[in-house]
Amino acid sequence: MTPKILILGAGYGGLTTALRLQKELHYNEADITLVNKHDYHYITTHLHQPAAGTVDPRRIKIDLDELIDKDRINFIKAEVVAIDIQNERKVTLDNGQGLTYDILVIALGSEVETFGIEGLKEHAFTIRSINSVQLIREHIEYMFAKYKNEPGHPEYLTFIVGGAGFTGIEFVGELADRIPELCEQFEVNPKKVRIINIEAAPSALPGFDPQLVDYAIEVLKNKGVEFKINTPIKACTEEGVTLADGEEIKAGTVVWTGGVRGNKLIEMLGIETMRARIKVDEFLRAPGYQDVFIIGDNSIVFNEEGRPYPPTAQIAVQQGEHLAKQITSYVRNGKMDLKPFKFNLRGTVASLGKGEAIGKVGNRKMTGYTALIMKQLIDNRYLYSIGGLPLVIKKGKLLG
Amino acid sequence: MTPKILILGAGYGGLTTALRLQKELHYNEADITLVNKHDYHYITTHLHQPAAGTVDPRRIKIDLDELIDKDRINFIKAEVVAIDIQNERKVTLDNGQGLTYDILVIALGSEVETFGIEGLKEHAFTIRSINSVQLIREHIEYMFAKYKNEPGHPEYLTFIVGGAGFTGIEFVGELADRIPELCEQFEVNPKKVRIINIEAAPSALPGFDPQLVDYAIEVLKNKGVEFKINTPIKACTEEGVTLADGEEIKAGTVVWTGGVRGNKLIEMLGIETMRARIKVDEFLRAPGYQDVFIIGDNSIVFNEEGRPYPPTAQIAVQQGEHLAKQITSYVRNGKMDLKPFKFNLRGTVASLGKGEAIGKVGNRKMTGYTALIMKQLIDNRYLYSIGGLPLVIKKGKLLG
């Protein structure tokens, strides 16, 4: 009887696993099911662009039926509401459906971490999905229109971005590029617009090469972005934010990019978690389980120095590729011939908006155009890996 | 000593007066001052288009310095805060400036009339200026984005338009045209969108030819617009509206087009007013004053049957033309040779959105394309009258 492979989530990790299996396995070798909340995949690493309004959200969306061969993968558009790996080995969906499995791949992606900061959940926008960034874009334009009707409210033109990690930095860079366009459209004096990036840690882009961080800050300051580093946000209200040092900043828009955590469903698996993520074994398995794999933002993998790799698209994709190989061998040989997963850091690039970026590949630091090209290479390599040349042609140029 | 002519307002009436005088008089014959809140004039009869988002608001804006010859007209960008025609013969501006005059032309346009309906001022949008319609457009898009993030709130996609007069009818026609575009952009099922036009009077377009009104309603119903005629709105809240019959309709957007009144400054002149408008004498003068003229939406002119003409761009323009002639003769002959003003109704056309309109010229009724062409003729005739051929070429095609 053909083994049932159940993949939860069509983000970087889950989609890569599914598409690799689709390529490797013949339609009769395994019964593959992919569950995802939306019927599309999106380029999460570029959400900051439609959020700022510089790119149409539809451009970073990829319909799953463009990628999935329905003869080989059974796709279910639904939300996972419960995962029981301990007793019934069953996954429950919001449509009431219950799914069993021989091999389970959990790749549900991350959720926003607000660290319990008061009012953040209620009043801050987050860069987490196509819908959430569309809302940010529309809200920004709405604030310009409101300011034109109530010029007595300069705070409508103040945009606070909480968090100066990759998403925060890439978003403020993009937003700074959008502002002149909005000022022209609404006939607003650009001097009246403020973009304030607030970071609790002692540095922006924590953990990134300090020299490159300085470069990034310089570039963004020249674009008009203000920074408050080493400044925790204490609370967020309808009116703006209150900082730990007591300062209050009025703002019509607060976008929170300050943290991600795993998935609440991960916390209900009955396994020890760190911020809703699970420390998987070297074979990407949930500790104590032979047939439950956890990848992407739901998993934690440690490097040689024993520090966890940050959750990135890059590691999720490599996990998916690795896992697909293992599952294939299992399907073919009845048993899983296990190989330990090794993350190969190909490089890290952060865009700073039009024409600017910073990046590190191995020990090589790059800035400006070189870094941008590097980013485009990484993007296109991924598009190629999931959709081949047609997808690169269709979406590639639009990114980076 | 050259007479001081002071014109308040650069809408249809005031601008026409100023531009006719600029054409007629030599720069040394009179000292003409034009005061306006903005440094631009706008095509009020087309505000419903940028409100719906089908036309860029900038397209219906005309910078005054494109029309005004600074050697002949002294333009002041300021808001009028007080008019004293009884004692000091002085007009006070929000910049503190005080202006005297030999001839005063009051053409300050209308304000929104809410008939004291509870909550309307606070919660309803109004189609009254470039800025106010830009806000409506952005709000509509924002509601689509909000719905995508909170699908449990269908009311975000309900758009209530209070008033089925010309503005209301033209707006719902335009909005109905915009919806499919928005549904595609935000990937929303058009069936979920509601446009409800609510009118207190027993008929839409009160006073307009019943046969044409029926035609209009048919066209708009086919575009998906719902009508509640003979249904007064009792109250407007953040959640929507309550009707006189007690029905509550939840809506994320309420646009009020149900009425206009003159200007609060008119009510402070010490002359009897009807809804902040003044019944001028046959020479367009404020009753009891030789040198104070009131035109456009601030004035009331009665027809042969003793019914007041509705305030329209058409009558305002004709008043301006008439007044300019009188002022010219006054400047030339020292005394005003007065001619009674006769309104010549050239025709009335209401657009119903893309490709559809209704109109009446004399006794000739027209619909569809014919009516649209008629509308364009009227629009272009006006553009020509204020800006000549260049303006027709620049803006003409964009309208209608």
From TrEMBL, chains A, B:
Any one of the GO BP annotations: aerobic electron transport chain
Matching InterPro entries: FAD/NAD-bd_sf, FAD/NAD-binding_dom, NADH-Q_oxidoreductase
Protein keywords: FAD, Flavoprotein, Oxidoreductase
Keyword Oxidoreductase: yes
Pfam families, A to Z: Pyr_redox_2
Requisite cofactors: FAD
Entries under SUPFAM superfamilies matching the protein: FAD/NAD(P)-binding domain (SSF51905)
Any one GO MF annotation of this record: NAD(P)H dehydrogenase (quinone) activity
Start and end residues of each FAD/NAD(P)-binding domain: 4-320
Superkingdom as given in the UniProt entry: Bacteria
Family: Belongs to the NADH dehydrogenase family.
Protein name, UniProt field: NADH dehydrogenase
The species this protein was found in: Tepidibacillus decaturensis
